[in-house]
Predict the structure.
Amino acid sequence: MNYIYIRGSNKMKECIKSPQLILEEKKAVKLFLWLFYIVYFSFDILAYYLLPNTLKNEKIGNPQEGLGNWIYVLIMILLPISIWMIKKGNLYLVKYVYIYCYLLIDVINTLIIYIGNPKHYMGGHIVEVLFVLFCPIFVSKKYFWTVSLSLIGKYIVLGLILRDPQVFISIVIYLILSAISNVMLTRFYSYIKSLTSIHDELLKKEKLAVIGQMAAAIGHEIRNPLSSLKGFTQLQQERYPNTNDFYPIMIQEIDRINSIVNDLMYIGKPRAVKFEKASIEEIIAYTLSITQQQAEIQGITVETTMAGPLPPIDCDSNQLKQVFLNLIKNAIEAMPDGGCIKINVKVVEKQKMYISIQDEGCGIKDENILNLGEPFFTTKEDGTGLGLMVTNQIIKEHLGKLNIKSEVEKGTKVEVILPIIHRK
Ligand code: ADP
Ligand code: MG
């Protein structure tokens, strides 16, 4: 079962690696490489030269145990490998190469030093903290999980092999650091997400404003001749009632053009909402009276259930008529072979009016769900793809919600939830 919640233009977008994003990752990798080597060698100079010299008066010099100087050779080999990877376009893998290779070298080194040696484990390298702190900088959940799990995993394995309780101090430290890093990463994510959605919304508004200006200008020009055309057709029909069966069809088609023009004029230039108390029963009855003829032709029955006496709601009744007209028309158009449309109206959460329109039609395919409400998205041969966009816009202006649940070949349920009392 598909369940979607249309909220303005919010639409999950595929993550596309744009040139700017690649540039950002390049900057992050560069910073990571610099800091990795600075931190790595500073720590070792401190551990093997400065501290022994000043504090303990011990012998200074390179590490003698474990892999000895080979560690530096191996760590330095990673640099040309990562540069080669960046050149080959595998920029996103560099950080993983470092974490995995570092861990491999470190575990081998630690095991050579401590296995069979009674001295206590001295803790890991400070560069591991850098790995954790870079999670929010790379803004990658995958990297966060890789680093956290592999570092903590490393200490658990070492703890089990060496049977040294000191290792567990490192586990606790990395658990805390990972938690902090996760909080930062989540904050970064949510901040970036809100920036992206603002950007999307602005882009869409801009696009709609241009289309809207064009549509409004053309619509305005079409509406006037259209209303004279309708007037004259009606006049002709009255004058010669028996001569032509096509007059009702002509009027119906003119009405259709009119409703398309109305929808078009709504884009980018929503009309001012005039809030007044209105009866939802009357609004729905009106829309049903308009759609009745088409429903009958297609063998569709409509069952309406209104729960008890319903309070009037604050709304622009003309706009709500347009909402329910669009939704009921969509339900009818989804059932070319007939069926039943169930309309349910009730008060929920005391202050909200809930209206559902359920059909037994073709349903909406998964791949189309995300496009619903986008201007001009239609799967119908003669559709305009404006109905749900206008509907969504009007419901948003009424501070309401629109939910759509759909199952292919079973039907669609559209829920509209509107506040009964409008508070700005
Ligand atoms: P149009 O009706 O002109 O195609 P809408 O914005 O009203 O434009 O609807 C967009 C698309 O959403 C439709 O083309 C259809 O694919 C899908 N849709 C909307 N409502 C329903 C429904 N009740 N059942 C099946 N598909 C629907
Ligand atoms: Mg429609």
